[in-house]
Amino acid sequence: MALLERVSTLIRANLNDLVDKAEDPEKMIKQVILDMENQLLQVKTQVAISIADQHVLEKKLKENEDNDGQWMRRADMALDQHDDKLARTAVERAMTYRSTAESFRQQVEDQKTQVENLKGALTKLQQKLVEAQAKSDMLIAQHRRSRALGKATQAGLNMGDQSKTAAFDRMKNKVQHSEATAQATAELMADNVEDQFKAMEKHDEIDRLLAELKAKRKAG
To answer: Which DSSP category does 24 fall into?
Structure first.
């Protein structure tokens, strides 16, 4: 039965492997659960139909068994009346019902087997669906963590790219050079002011010494 084959495929499915192989694990796990729910509904419907068919077959079996017994009683009545011909006809009719009953008996056994198989598949599929529903959030969260880790790793690899590292080093050197230039300029400016004050002091000292010298000459 195609339905049982589809159900069997879903029951055997390894959810972890499906998530690992899927391009979109979240979409995949939701689709698997949806498929299970749809198949579960179909199996429930088929179980109900199969049980109904079993009841019909069992009813037919009983009818033929009853007819078999009834015609055998009639054959017995005919013998009581010493009517062998009528008794023979009744036995032949009983044998027809007996043969039909045997056919129905085999169908009933086959139908019982099918019902049990469907019930077993229904139970297993229900268990698999519960497992999938319980695992879905965990598997999706696990996939998201794995994807985030992959992005972080890729970002780290990108940061380690030689061209980007070299560009960063050049920018760093440029900033350091600018800082050094600014500091040197500041130092030069500081030195220039210092020299100006020293020149002023020297000029004043020269003027003072000249004044003293003139004063001594006048006094002499």
So the answer is: S
Amino acid at 169: D
Question: What range defines the domain where residue 211 resides?
Answer: 164-220
Determine what percent of the chain is predicted with pLDDT higher than 70: 62
Q: What is the pLDDT of residue 73?
A: 93
Q: Which of 90, 40, 41, 39 is nearest to 69 (CA)?
A: 90
Same domain, 131 and 207: no
Q: What's the structural domain count of the chain? A: 2
Question: What b/e readout covers 125-136, taking b as 16+ CB neighbours within 10 angstroms?
Answer: beebbeebeebb
C-beta of residue 52 within 8 angstroms of C-beta of residue 16 = no
Q: Give the chain's length.
A: 220
Q: How confident is the model at residue 160 (pLDDT cuts 50, 70, 90)?
A: low
Q: Are residues 83 and 102 in the same domain?
A: yes
Residue 68 class from Cβ within 10 Å (0-12 exposed, 13-18 middle, 19+ buried)? Answer: buried
Tokens 């004050």 correspond to what residue? Answer: 197
Domain identity same for 152 and 181: no
